[in-house]
Amino acid sequence: KVEKPDEFIDEEGKRVDGRDLNELRPVKIEANVLNRADGSCYIELGDNKIYAAVYGPREVHPRHLQEPDRAIVRYKYSMAPFSVSDRKRPGPGRRSKEISKVSEEALESAIFLEKYPKSVIDVFVEIVESAAGTRTTSLTAASVACADAGIPMRDLIASCASGKIDEEIVLDLNEPEDNHGDADVPVAMMPRTEDITLLQMDGDLTAEEIDEAIDLAKEGCKQLYEEQKNALKSKYGGK
Ligand code: CDP
After folding, report:
1. 202 C-alpha to ligand 1 centroid (Å)
2. Which helix (H) or strand (E) holds 1?
3. Looking at this predicted complex, what is its ipTM?
4. 172 CB under 6 A from ligand 1?
């Protein structure tokens, strides 16, 4: 774990990495970065470095998993052993399984699954460098990868977290803030309608603080949405 700073917010209202309370970390998104995948995306958010790869829609194996009237989505979140400060044991643990499950549900609500009966859309995310906010940043990348694969969607899924440090609700916790802060609220949404497809909370917040945290995370999602669209536009042009 990284060290706990003496104070999270200085007299000027700046955070340990110099950000304002409502500011995202620097973000970079690139679509179509992997040749073997049907769709892919690379994202950096602060020190996070994440690849998403999408395969499909394709026939489901094993066949008993087929749904007669729609596609299924399989989402696999995986943290490389070298992606964290202590080595992470390879393979899926409880944390990865939980993240995969909630992310799968968050992503599939944006996809027109009924267009692909008996099919599967496989989504793999690989965290190569991890610095807090990986579940949300992965979802942001995964939905760009789905769009890159040409999968018809209601909207992209944009996702980021807000949280609480030094009694303040702030956007996009970095590692010290995530490790030593008071709460973390990951949110994913379809920005056009503002439908929320993932909402989690780790820590203690009052009802008012939860509302404030969700509103702030939604603003972050809207900013990421612009970057997602720019990444797709710069590959494929269009409006
Ligand atoms: O990454 P996210 O914020 O979605 O999930 P988390 O469970 O709140 O983890 C926060 C951060 O702790 C991760 O992004 C990693 O940087 C770190 N972590 C770690 O160092 N080792 C693990 N086995 C799991 C998480």
Report:
1. 12
2. none
3. 0.98
4. no
Q: Would you say the CB of residue 49 lies under 6 angstroms from ligand 1?
A: no
* CB neighbourhood size of 165 (10 A): 24
Please give the helix or strand (H or E) that residue 228 lies within, else none.
Answer: helix 207-236
pLDDT at residue 239, as a whole number: 56
Q: How far apart are CA 68 and CA 114, in angstroms?
A: 9
How high is the pLDDT of residue 1? 72
If pLDDT is split at 50, 70 and 90, which confidence band does 34 have?
very high
Specify the CATH superfamily of domain 27-233: GHMP Kinase, N-terminal domain (3.30.230.70)
Q: 37 CB contacts (<8 Å, ≥6 apart)?
A: 53, 54, 55, 145, 149
Taking the model in full, what pTM does it have? 0.97
Query: Whole-angstrom Cα distance, residue 174 to residue 170?
Result: 10
Question: What tens digit of pLDDT does each residue of 183-217 get?
Answer: 999 999 999 999 999 999 999 999 999 999 999 99
Tell whether ligand 1 has an atom less than 6 A from the beta carbon of residue 46.
no
CA–CA distance, 141 with 180 (Å, rounded to integer): 26
Domain boundaries, the chain: 27-233
68 alpha carbon – ligand 1 mean position (Å): 37
For residue 139, report the distance from its CA to the centre of ligand 1, in Å. 15
Average pLDDT of the chain is 97
Residue 152's φ and ψ, nearest 5 degrees, are: -70, 130
